[in-house]
Structures
1.
Amino acid sequence: MTEGIQLFEQEKFEQALEKFKNVIEADPDNPEANLFLGMTYSKLESFPKALDILHRASIRHPQNIEILLNLGITHYSLSEFETALDILEKVLKIDPGNASSQLFKGLCQLALGEHEKAIQSFDSAHKINPEFEQLSLFNQGLAHFKNESFEQAQKMFQAAIDSNPDTEMVV
């Protein structure tokens, strides 16, 4: 398992895939192996396979936040925003302080045209995890822009730039 995680972190996804498959062959209910196998398929953009693995893992481990979060993210990646939103809400019921879930919840709401809700979710993600500040402000700007609140959008975009002017998002 450790070797597979190291390969995953080194972005050697094909090799990591084989390691995780071997772990699951020996222990099909291993939640960590199922999580990493699903994430690896996602990194390889094999979203249907990732979805299958993560869905089955979520049935066996319905309280596992990381499995549920990655299942929600995979649905988001497939533009299945309502399904993703339902799963992300489950994560937040288990762990209200999950900033990643709040962020992806906002992205789903933004895609569904629920701009005001998205703004609240992005703001919550930033309050939970200050490292999400720039991303949150930028996405709030997008939501205001889509809501045709151009002055507020401009303020959010400027705040995103000002929060960290040296990131790739700004350059």
Note: The chain has a mean pLDDT of 96.
2.
Amino acid sequence: MQYQISFLSPNGHARCLAEAISKILPADTAVMDLEEECEVYAETQLIGFEMNEVSIRAVPYRIMELLNKLEHHNVILFVTSPFRTNSHVKDLMEHRIEPFLPETCHYLGLYLCTGQASEALLNSLRFHAEKNPEDKQAENALRRCEESIGHPDEEEIMKACRFVAEILKIE
């Protein structure tokens, strides 16, 4: 087995990307939900997870656990976020992930796209914005999270597949 896709997807967004990416890879590609299993079976690891109000500050434990096992492996990451998905956020996420990548792994890149905010996050931001109408930061965060509804969309899913295909030189 050459490729393995592992994901952590409490809201289904990373799973959606994982399933789409698996379709462009060989049929023997392993696809694993990290809530169920955290083993390494292939040379090239494609790892996906969802950023949320917690993971924007820290890498999820199951992701850290898997990354630590990847000595001498190729690593590609795909991440969804209900927040901004610009180069600054991508750089921030890569900076947070870097300490967990073994020195001997070959990091190939990170694809970042919008993922729908959880209902809990939306409700929390709505409550805060309603109680604090002068808080422009909360208002902006709520607007960005409301704009995340319906994501990742088909375009973002296709871009994720193209990103992986380009890195792995798959046609």
Note: Strands lie at 3-8, 30-33, 44-50, 74-81, 106-114.
3.
Amino acid sequence: MNEKVAAFVPFVDFLGAALGSATEVALHDLTDPSHSIVKIVNGHVSGRAVGAPATAFSLKMRSEDCFVSDYVSTTADGRPLQSSSFFIRDGAKVVGILCVNIDPQPFRTLEDGLKAFMEAYRHGGSEEFRDTNLEAVRAAYRAPLHRRGRDGRGRAGPLAARRAWQDVERA
């Protein structure tokens, strides 16, 4: 493995752990493009494993830039991924690529659920709910002590508490 590429191996594990299971992180060593993946985390996202080839797209995409971000790639079974690639160089030559591929499906499922919720909320109109019982309890608590009732030891007794609750129920 190219030593410049090898330096990124721990970073692949870090990114995979930090970004979660819907994000694939693949490290390519371009010494042998037909078996370029030397480290991969969450390979289930694309179905690839160590030893898989670099895609023709990634080989064409090598540019003068340090990285390319936010482009759409496609898995072998046709699913779209949101991708970004960092080019690892030895001088001017690109010797490796660190790829981050996000499966947007879990986010779309969440988005669809939120849209359905918001749709139901929107069509239901708007109504302000006030907890009148809560307001009555707060009012009873703020009432002067002589109106709340006290037992012989200076504490609110069970009878006083029951009366306060009955007042709440009547409100």
Note: The longest helix spans residues 105-123.
4.
Amino acid sequence: MAILGGESLSMVKMALGGAQKSNNFFTMILAKTQLIPLPINPISIIATNLPSRTISKIQFKDMGTTYNIAGDTTFGDWSITIRTYQFIDYRQIKSWCESIHAPMSGKRSLPKVYKTTCTLSQIDHKTGLPFTNFIIKGVYPVSISDIKYSEDTSDLITFDVTFNVDDVITL
């Protein structure tokens, strides 16, 4: 489960009907600029992962011997699976994507406009307090999965969002 906008834990419990499980996550996306149309409604994240971290190696040779030293650090993508009761969450993330690049007009935004910082907190299901926190910097969506419709589809909507990230800091 995620909170995008700072809603209280009790509000989210009430909205989603029931106590929180130990594997639920809450996240808040913080805008660096007012131009980003960020989600502000409670969003239920049912699955997430922390981005992988890779440190490249730089090789250099000295008198016939090859040495390896640490190079640049890069981070993998951050994926979340969202479960929601309304299409508003999907529309808000889609709007964020369109603010990055609008295919019909060809307009593109600058990174300082669409990138933001996200706080990911794992909430203790007994106390309702965060016990693990991460700051994820340079966040922006790179893909939104499809939503499948069928006759037996419930009111719940589930879709995946993949974000590109610049840095992950553990608090």
Note: Residues 1-22 have pLDDT under 50 and may be disordered.
